[in-house]
Design a protein that fits this description.
By secondary structure, the protein is of the alpha/beta class. The chain has 14 helices and 18 strands. The longest helix has 16 residues. It starts with 5 loop residues before the first strand and ends in a 7-residue tail after the last strand. The structure holds guanosine-5'-diphosphate (2 copies).
């Protein structure tokens, strides 16, 4: 899985970071970083330019000097981490005033901590900038571009420079991972560990406790047709429930962590109970819909299933039909080993579907022709798709270039997803859409 590179904008207040950011983004989004006590939002947007995709992150006017205020210190530490892990930093300064003490502090910090920096000298529309250009260059970054965020000059040049840098620093996407990760999810006693042991025994070659994961999640590598698969059990979910029947938030957190690294989620249900708990189901569908993981459902303990449990289970499955319609279900028994020989081949098929590369031209034609036959409207305005490009596999990630991204909400994207599912085999695998406006090349 290749990760989307992060490009972080850094600079003191008032240099024009938001103006620049808003030029590049079409739809502003703020993400509260997943850190306790962090109230400040970092602004993040996915940008595509010439088939390259990256996250643009605005750290705001963060000071990089240590402070005594614990909250500010936390915010600073998060911003510092962002800079340290960024693939590229855009360091913006204000050309009309030249470098101030604070700019020099930031520059020092970046020289120490950032991998790649482009200096952006903003406000080139002002005459004063010419006089200060030389001063800005003394900040000590060889790569610098002069722009006017307000007037849009130099923006294309910055984009080209970003793409150029990212090409040099990020690894090309692997054709196919040799190792994919499968997480087994289910409430206590449904047979998760029995299943793990069985699968490991079937194709036993390596059984390996991953360092540091033995306490949190039980993980084994197994070999199947020359492919290494990592199997992870989720013991977090196994611990006992709270008195009110809900799963402790902490446990859910631990299951979340396991899900985050998974490619495929296997939800195990106990057939003998004729029922399943919504919590596990919610987690599984959260993984599928929100985290874009592939999903299969195994109905275990088939040997204990009776007519009565089968009937109640069928009813329950029917209740969730709308969720299950894209998901493969298989009945198994870890005791009689019914169907257990079919699990690894099923995982293998799902992995192939999950990591498939669709033909972008074909998908573009498909969407355009469907829209011609069945136009979609926002109020009275027609939704237009100009092109579709698959920029990633596992999960299949499609960038739709459209007339107005704000008109492409869940229900419209659901339409395109159905079109895609009718045309391609996507059983058990999600599709991720990124919607972008058509960029006009800006004058440099
Ligand atoms: P931030 O605090 O770094 O996010 O800066 P803002 O984007 O809020 O901009 C600060 C001020 O500088 C605003 O009044 C902007 O209108 C102005 N500004 C931003 N870019 C330019 C530019 O290219 N030229 C000029 N003249 N002013 C700009
Ligand atoms: P986990 O808590 O989900 O990991 O569940 P375990 O694998 O520990 O299994 C719980 C119990 O169910 C054990 O006593 C297993 O022997 C039993 N079990 C697992 N799979 C099956 C099955 O297919 N049929 C029957 N009858 N029992 C099973």
């Amino acid at each position: 899985m290749s990760k989307i590179p992060n490009v972080v904008i850094v600079g003191r207040t008032n240099v024009g970071k938001s103006t620049f950011f808003n030029r590049l983004s079409t739809d502003k989004k703020s993400i509260a970083l997943d850190e306790e006590g962090i109230t400040r939002d970092f602004i993040k947007e996915v940008i595509t330019w010439d088939s390259t995709i990256f996250n643009l992150i605005d750290t705001g006017g963060i000071r990089f000097k240590k402070t005594k205020d614990p909250l500010l210190e936390k915010v600073r530490a998060v911003a510092e981490e962002q800079v340290k892990t960024a693939d590229l930093v855009l360091f913006m300064c204000d050309g009309t005033v030249g470098p101030l003490q604070e700019d020099r502090e930031i520059a020092r910090f970046l020289r120490r901590c950032a991998k790649n920096v482009i200096l952006i000298i903003n406000k080139a529309d002002s005459l004063a900038t010419q006089a200060n250009l030389h001063e800005c260059v003394t900040l000590g970054f060889s790569n610098s571009i002069t722009i006017s965020a307000q007037h849009g000059t130099g923006i294309a040049e910055v984009l080209e420079a970003i793409i150029e840098q990212l090409k040099q620093t990020t690894e090309p996407a692997a054709e196919e991972k040799s190792l994919y990760s499968v997480v087994i999810l289910g409430k206590p006693n449904v047979g998760k560990s029995s299943l793990m042991n069985l699968l490991a025994k079937q194709e036993r070659s390596i059984i390996l406790d991953m360092p540091g994961t033995t306490r949190e999640a039980l993980s084994q590598d197994i070999q199947f047709y020359n492919k290494k698969i990592e199997l992870v059990d989720t013991p977090g979910i196994r611990r006992k429930r709270c008195v009110d029947g809900t799963i402790e938030p902490l446990m859910v957190k631990s299951a979340f962590a396991a899900l985050k690294h998974a490619d495929i989620v296997v939800l195990v249900i106990d057939a003998s109970e004729g029922d399943f708990v919504d919590q596990e189901l919610k987690l599984a569908f959260y993984a599928f819909e929100e985290q874009h993981k592939a999903l299969i459902v195994l109905i275990n303990k088939q040997d204990l299933s009776t007519e009565e449990t089968q009937r109640t289970l069928d009813l329950k499955l029917d209740e969730y039909k709308y969720m299950f319609k894209h998901i493969p279900l298989m009945s198994i028994s870890c005791i009689t080993e019914k169907n257990t020989g079919r699990i690894l081949p099923l995982l293998d098929t799902i992995w192939k579907l999950y990591s498939q590369q669709l033909n972008s031209d074909e998908v573009t034609k498909l969407f355009i022709s469907k829209l011609t036959k069945k136009p979609l409207f926002h109020l009275s305005q027609k939704l237009v798709v100009y092109s579709v490009e698959q920029i990633r596999t596992a999960p299949i990630t499609l960038v739709l270039t459209v007339n107005n991204p704000a008109w492409f909400k869940d229900s419209q994207l659901g339409f395109f997803e159905n079109v895609l599912r009718a045309e391609y085999d996507l059983k058990g695998v999600p599709v991720k859409f990124i919607v972008r406006a058509k960029y006009k090349r800006l004058a440099v």
